[in-house]
Structures are given as structure tokens and as C-alpha cells.
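Changelog entry: the DUF3299 domain-containing protein record was regenerated in this release. Current contents:
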Amino acid sequence: MSRRLILSLLPALPLAAALPGGVRAQDAAIRLRDLYNRDLSFSDLALSNEGQRITIAGFMAPPLRAESNFFVLTKMPMAVCPFCEPGMPWPDDILAVYAKRVVDVVPFNVPLQTSGLLELGDYVDPELGFYSKVRLTDATYGRA
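Regenerated C-alpha cells:
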């Protein structure tokens, strides 16, 4: 590519973001803490992305059950799964993840990027009994 060609294309860069498949702010990874306000209510970011596909970075906690499509994403590596029950305060640094397929367990200290549909509100998994306040469904994940 010639230098002139590159310079002539520079003014078009802002337009490229508007094209389908262009980089958008919602494609950037969201941190777990970005989902909450200080009082642990859902943030405007969480509320505006409810039902949308988002990406969150974190670590896979050890699974509650083998051959499951469920795992817990944590802010920090944890050797023990932080299991929550109804009525207990929901920690702001974990996220329930329901994957599209059975989960291939990843060591707890390997960073992941997890993408899925954001769901908000109380939910108790009928099979596992796991209580969650926020979760990703139809999720995919991979090493960061």
C-alpha cells in the first residue's frame, strides 16, 4: 500500500465504525463491577444491555456438577465455587453462565472472555438450585 492511499483513506475511518461488523462500544469486554452501582442495584449499563449479547472477562470457578452447561464466572481466580442461596446477599464479583454446550472445564486461574445474553433478576436454577441475580445465557467462552 502506498502512503498516499493510506492518507487518503484516513477521513473515512469514522464511517467504518458505523458499518455492520464495525467495532462498537458494546463489543468491548465489560467488567463484572460495571454491572452494579455502589448500592448493588443494577447500573445503567446493565439495564441498557439487558437481553443483549455482551462480553465479560473473568475466571471459571470449579463446576458444581460434571457434564453441565453451567459455570460461575468470577472476577478473581477461586479454587472453590462461591455458591449462593436465595436470601443471601448477592456478591458483585460473580456471574452465572449458561453455555450453549456442555462446559469443558478450564483451570480456575486461566483468564476467559465470556459472551452471552445478559439476564437480570432473581432466578433459581431448577436442576442445580443455584440462585443468581445476574447471568449470561446462550453463552460462549474462550481463553482471553
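The chain is about 10% helix and 30% strand.
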